[in-house]
Amino acid sequence: MPYRVEWSPQAWREFQVLDGVIQRRLAAAVDGLAQNPRPPGAKRMHGRASDVWRIRVGDYRLLYQIRGDVLVVFVVKVGHRREVYRRR
């Protein structure tokens, strides 16, 4: 049974300002998460954000949470690898 994908408002805004080619690559990765929320190469983040997972899409990272009880993948943050891990 596929998961539903939801975006945080911040992640959606970050996604919208990216180049179209990058958007298509990230969208394909998100579609894949709906089928398998823990694909090969997905890693769980350490520290306080232990419920957050990440996948690599070229130089970009997609941070997300898996809510298995309601079958939802919640996209938390999207960005270039040099910026996505910084706290604001």
Overview of the structural elements:
It is built from two helices and five strands, in the order βααββββ. The model has no long low-confidence stretch (mean pLDDT 90). A five-stranded mixed sheet has the order 1-5-4-3-2. The N and C termini lie far apart (36 Å). The chain has one domain (4-80): YaeB-like fold. The radius of gyration is 12 Å and the shape is globular. With 88 residues, the protein is of the alpha+beta class. 19% of the residues are buried.
CATH topology (fold) name: YaeB-like fold
The CATH H-level homologous superfamily: RelE-like
Secondary-structure element order, N to C: EHHEEEE
Radius of gyration: 12 Å
Q: Compute the number of strand runs.
A: 5
CATH architectural group: 2-Layer Sandwich
Distance between the termini: 36 Å
Structural class: alpha+beta
CATH top level is Alpha Beta
Instruction: Please state how the strands of the largest beta sheet are arranged side by side.
Output: 1-5-4-3-2
Mean pLDDT equals 90
Please give the share of residues in helix.
25-40%
As for the number of domains, it is 1
What can be said about the biggest beta sheet?
5 strands, mixed
